[in-house]
Amino acid sequence: MNHASSFSQDVSPAITRRDGRLFRSGQPYRILAGALHYFRVHPDYWEDRLRRLAAMGANTVDTYVAWNFHERTEGEPQFDGWRDLESFIRLAGDVGLDVYLRPSPYICAEWSNGGLPFWLTGRVSALRTSDPEYLAAVDRWYDELIPRIVPLQAAFGGPVVAVQIENEYGSFGSDHTYLEHQRDALRSRGIVELLTTADGITPDMLTHGSVAGALPTFTFGTGVATAQELRRPEDALVCSELWGGWFDHWGEPHHVRSAESMIGTVDELLAAGGSVSIYMAHGGTNFGLWNGANHDGALQPTITSYDSDAPIGEDGSLNAKFEALRTAFAPFHAIELPQRPEPAPVQAAQSVPLQPVTSLRDFAETLPMTGASTPMPQTFEQLGVEDGIVVYQAQVDVPADATIDIDTLHDRATVFIDDERVGTLERDGRLSLSLPGGARRALLTLIVESLGRINYGPRTGEGKGIMRGVRINGRRFVHGWTHRALPRDGVPSAGAWEAADAVASADVTAKSAADDGRVAGVARAAIDVETPADAWLAFPGGNKAMVWLNGFLLGRYWKVGPQQTLYAPAPLWRSGANEIIVLDTDGLGATVDVRERPEFGLTEEFVGS
Questions:
Q1: Whether 86 is catalytic
Q2: What residues does the Beta-galactosidase galactose-binding domain cover (predicted)?
Q3: Catalytic residue among 241, 381, 449, 462
Q4: Cα dihedral sign for 122, 128, 131, 135?
Q5: Contact (CB, 8 A) for 160 and 93
Q6: Pairing state of beta strands 544-549 and 552-558?
Q7: Residues forming beta bridges with residue 350, ordered by sequence position
Q8: d(CA 475, CA 385)
Q9: Beta strand 299-301 with 389-398: parallel, antiparallel or unpaired?
Q10: What pLDDT is recorded for position 519?
Q11: Which residues fall within 8 angstroms of residue 180, CB to CB, at 6 or more apart?
Q12: Average pLDDT over residues 222-237
């Protein structure tokens, strides 16, 4: 089958390579790129952020394509609204930027599941290999995606000048047949522009991540000299990810990198004749539950913010790194760089009360049932649940003194015996309890939350929920489970419950108090805004929650930090009353604070290798 549609294959790519250099229109050329992911930026701000990138001196925008963002339900890919990739690419061209496209199937990017759909990883174990079932799914996806990209290539008058085959494959696998398949899948569907791979700066990574017909590029923080040693003489020196900052996990410091450190590496690369993409130039936000996670002895969920201490901040603000890059890139432009855009307006600070609406235990009962009763608890994947919360319930005979073990819990469970909260389990923990009044038959309720799907390494694709079973006293399995799930993109509907001012707070507290006495459950607040503008939301005294603004899931806060505020961009606000809904599993605060600037918590300097 000829996937190249009606476009002639007798065309030339915009950028070519020979004798260790890149060329464009017969002249030596540098790619000066910055990473900016359309799926992490509200579409109303795409143009603003692209213009800031151009003002920084970039000639190219670098973006991944997150497969799971587009095909959340198998067989139902979406390319409209926030998912209108073609509009983003055209907009980049209108701004004067080329596009370096890094499509699926796998992107890492600290994004949920590394960009792979949960429905695929739930049934295929041999990910990123030539496994027939995996390749069939990738091919179906590419049949949807690539024909949209073909007419947007520079060869046909569009802005796309380079396309990446896979992402850091040399640190993951060794299936060369798979890499060849990915290369051929792009070429056979009509991609004629420069093909690349991207890998870390070790010989092993370069060997296993490279494939004939694609330019090997590097990812590093400070490895220019090493990359020069590894580069073949005929290949141009390209760093497709120069880490000017770093991402954060919950419970760790906020990572920063000084402008002096970053620009030192950039200047060294440019002096060596190299091309560069700053990762990230503008990080944006892991809105909703799209944050990924790592695993290094324990699960390490990524925070909602993806600011990454980038030159262009999460809210579009410009910093010293922006100025340093503008100075470094300016000599490579024949005309003066665009002026720096003005800062976006922000809302004035205010604080409003956060009113409890229902307890965590009662909230669990409002969620819709998912599937039939089953002998063993089902995983998120078996239930068709992408992320969020699943409530597991079963009748159980509980001894007076007992332990509850959840065998392979992914990731966190709040445990109730009847209406009494008895504790919280993290991953494969054990909960010991002593029941007043002795042994009894009771309803066991486990409110299980996915904290982020692993995006890097051998655990990529790992499932969520209760993976094996629940045991009493380490031996007896609990059987006969029902399941409830928070609907995808769902919001706890405060309007469906009794008005907040009619709820007796003592009743809410009695049903939802955690061990330290703080109230867990759902609360709401109303924020009046005259003119919509950017804001940062803080939840003093809150513990661990999901937050919705006017029905849109902003992300999470967690008292372990480092992130202290959630970015709430202007397009999500409306003039007049705005509704905040908070679902805190561990204990609500008393207020919602609107702040004029972000707070990322304690910092730690990062340089990278």
A1: no
A2: 525-578
A3: 241
A4: positive
A5: no
A6: antiparallel
A7: 594
A8: 29
A9: unpaired
A10: 87
A11: 211, 212
A12: 97
Q: What pLDDT digit, counting tens, does each position of 542-594 carry?
A: 999 999 999 999 999 999 999 999 999 999 999 999 999 999 999 999 999 99
The residue count for the chain = 609
Half-sphere exposure of 548 (CA within 13 A, CB side): 16
Asked if pLDDT for residue 441 goes beyond 50, the answer is yes
Residue with tokens 């996937």: 3
Return the minimum-mean-pLDDT range out of 371-380, 394-403, 433-442: 433-442
What pLDDT digit, counting tens, does each position of 131-146 carry? 999 999 999 999 999 9
Task: Give pLDDT, residue 274.
Answer: 98
480 SS3 class: coil
pLDDT at 513: 42
Residue showing tokens 């597991």: 392
Per the listing, tokens 């079932």 go with 133
**What is the pLDDT, as a whole number, of residue 9?**
59
pLDDT exceeds cutoff 60 at 529 = yes
Residue 224 confidence (pLDDT) above 60: yes
Can you tell me the distance from the alpha carbon of 176 to that of 211, in angstroms, rounded to the nearest whole number? 8
Which two three-digit tokens encode residue 561? 């930090």
How does pLDDT run across 296-315, given as a tens digit for each residue? 999 999 999 999 999 999 99
As given in the structure block, the two tokens for residue 549 are 């603004």
The yes-or-no answer on residue 241 being catalytic is: yes
Q: What pLDDT band is residue 518 in, cutting at 50, 70 and 90?
A: low
Instruction: Measure the CA–CA gap between 607 and 246, rounded to whole angstroms.
Output: 9
Determine which one of 71, 110, 168, 381 is catalytic.
Answer: 168
269, 237 in Cβ contact below 8 A?
Answer: yes
Each residue of 475-517: pLDDT tens digit? Answer: 999 999 999 999 998 898 755 454 444 443 444 444 444 444 4
| Contact call for residues 333 and 580 (beta carbons, < 8 A) | no
Domain range annotation of the chain: 15-330, 350-358+493-605, 368-485
pLDDT of residue 506: 41
Burial of 590 (0-12, 13-18, 19+ CB in 10 A): middle
List CB contacts of 94: < 8 A, sequence separation 6 or more. Answer: none
Q: Is 114 helix (H, G, I), strand (E, B) or coil?
A: helix
> 């870390």: which residue's tokens?
200
Return the sign of the alpha-carbon dihedral for residues 15, 92, 307, 56. Answer: positive
Longest dimension (CA), the chain: 85
Domain spanning 15-330, CATH class: alpha beta
Tell me the whole-structure pTM to 2 decimals: 0.95
CA distance 265 to 247: 19
For residue 290, the number of C-alpha atoms closer than 13 Å in the C-beta half-sphere is 25
Class of domain 368-485: mainly beta
Neighbours of 101 (CB within 10 A): 23
Q: What is the pLDDT of residue 451?
A: 98
Pick from 395, 399, 376, 375: which is nearest to 473 by CA?
399
Residue 595's nearest CA partner among 348, 302, 408 is 348
| Superfamily of domain 350-358+493-605 in the CATH hierarchy | Galactose-binding domain-like (2.60.120.260)
Q: Do domains 350-358+493-605 and 368-485 have the same CATH topology?
A: yes
Whole-number pLDDT of residue 381:
98
